[in-house]
Design goal:
Blueprint (H helix, E strand, L loop, with lengths): L7 H7 L3 E2 L13 E2 L6 H14 L1 H29 L1 H16 L7 H10 L17 H11 L2
Antiparallel strand pairs: 1-2
Helix pairs in contact: 3-4, 4-5
């Protein structure tokens, strides 16, 4: 898709951040230009990457500051989501464990609820009531063995 050629002044009038002049920059890039500096956006990205390579500690510090700034907000969102969808949380945790161990297998929330219902809330191995806190891997491995 070809960019529409527009002047910097016209882009400023329209409230845009970038414009396309159709002309190459000093480095030979033909791409978007930044309205505020009239610089090449491709060159700007390269400058930022080079700076980041030379200053890894400053980049890490900035990432940590950003993380700390938004951490509580994200943690609260995750807690709310987990309370709304406990089976999804449990399935995701089991899948992560399986992948970490190299066992493979993916557990979805539907799988968990289907097997829980099929086993009537009891452990497939010892037939005791499992309640709310049960171990998915144990139920899956036993269930799969008996129903192949």
């Amino acid at each position: 898709m070809a960019e529409e050629i527009i002047s910097c002044i016209e882009a400023k009038r329209q409230g845009l951040s970038y414009y396309f002049s159709g002309k190459a920059c000093i480095q030979g890039h033909i791409g978007k230009r930044i309205v505020s500096s009239r610089g090449c956006s491709v060159c700007r990205i390269q400058i930022k990457r080079n700076w980041a390579k030379k200053n890894p500690t400053k980049v890490r510090e900035q990432k940590n500051k950003t993380y700390l700034k938004y951490r509580d907000k994200y943690l609260q969102q995750y807690k709310e989501r987990d309370l709304k969808h406990p089976l999804k949380k449990r399935a995701a945790r089991a899948t992560r464990k399986a992948l970490k161990r190299g066992n493979g297998g993916i557990h979805t929330a539907n799988d968990v609820s289907r097997i829980y219902r099929a086993q009537r809330g009891k452990c497939a191995y010892c037939r005791r009531k499992v309640g709310e806190e049960y171990h998915i891997d144990h139920i899956f491995s036993t269930f799969e063995r008996w129903h192949k």
